[in-house]
Amino acid sequence: MTALEFTYNINRVSKTLRPFAMRLTRDSEDANDLLQDTMLKAFTNREKYTDGTNLKAWLYTIMKNTFITNYQRMMRKNTFIDTTDNLHYINSSDNSTHNEAYSSFAMDDITTAIESLESAYKVPFMMHFRGFKYHEIAAKLEIPIGTVKNRIHIARKELKHLLRVYSHLD
């Protein structure tokens, strides 16, 4: 695809990106900036686009990834490192005290919920929770990787059901 054809196709599809940018940013100015960043990245990386694939999906992916990157950058900018001996990360906009008793009750409920899972679901879930990758879990348990993913999904679904009392805490 020539640069002219690429430009024509991008301009044709770009009109559908603005509503997606508005849903992500919830601000007109930020949406315009995100759209502009997306177009710039698409033009500068046009050699990475495979001719014949879905251009619209490619642009949506660029936009989503750009939004996530910008959001993470903003969060890092708003977080500073406490250089005292404790070496804690402190978010400057979040100064609140939490009731430790509530946390203790929640942890007890979470532990009880996890313990109530069937072993077939609990073992892969806990291995994944501890940082094992899907393929590592599959190899260790000698089951297909699809089964591992399914069991972890079912465990999460069951835990979500068992801990639904905490769903209002977002």
TrEMBL record:
Keyword hit for Transcription: yes
Keywords: Sigma factor, Transcription, Transcription regulation
Claim: 4Fe-4S is one of the keywords in the record: no
Pfam family, one: Sigma70_r4_2
Domain RNA polymerase sigma factor 70 region 4 type: start-end pairs: 109-159
GO molecular function: DNA binding; sigma factor activity
GO BP: any one term: DNA-templated transcription initiation
Domain RNA polymerase sigma-70 region: from-to ranges: 12-73
Homology family: Belongs to the sigma-70 factor family. ECF subfamily.
Protein name listed in UniProt: Sigma-70 family RNA polymerase sigma factor
Source organism (scientific name): Salmonirosea aquatica
